[in-house]
Amino acid sequence: MNSSFEINNHEALIKINSELYEKDVLLQATYTLLEEFYFLLDLKDNYFIVSMKSKEKKLSVEEFEKEILRFYDELIEAAAYIEQLKKTSGIREALLESALFSQKKLDEDNNKNG
Question: Residue 59 — left, alpha, or beta (φ > 0 → left; ψ -120 to 50 → alpha)?
Fold first, then answer.
């Protein structure tokens, strides 16, 4: 299994395979849950070790499992989002370049006429 977790004393320890998920993805996933949880991150043997603890209340094991599954959902969502950013970066760069070129042309025309 590439990811696993355990819950002890109202704290979850989650193992995330660093070959499947990049650090940026992990940071984005934890960021979305910062209002509700404290996180500590570490790296050991090609696995990110994520310590997750509720800020407000002690969660039952069942509640904590749901929150961990929500964290996994956030992880997948962040991975998909970052992957799309990478795939569309060329398009964004071309659009920005075109917009800057158009603005430069307008500025030059205004300076000639102005």
Answer: beta
Q: Give the pLDDT confidence of 28-38 residue by residue, as tens digits.
A: 999 999 999 99
Please compute, for residue 22, the number of CA atoms within 13 A of its CA located in the half-sphere on the CB side.
11
> How many C-beta neighbours within 10 Å does residue 108 have?
10
- The Cα–Cα gap between 33 and 21 comes to 17
Task: Tell me the one-letter amino acid at 47.
Answer: Y
Confidence of residue 3 (pLDDT cuts 50, 70, 90): low
Reduced to 3 states (helix: H, G, I; strand: E, B; else coil), residue 114 is: coil
Give the rounded percent of residues in the chain with a pLDDT score beyond 90.
Answer: 61
Q: CA 18, 19, 21, 27: dihedral to nearest 10 degrees?
A: 30
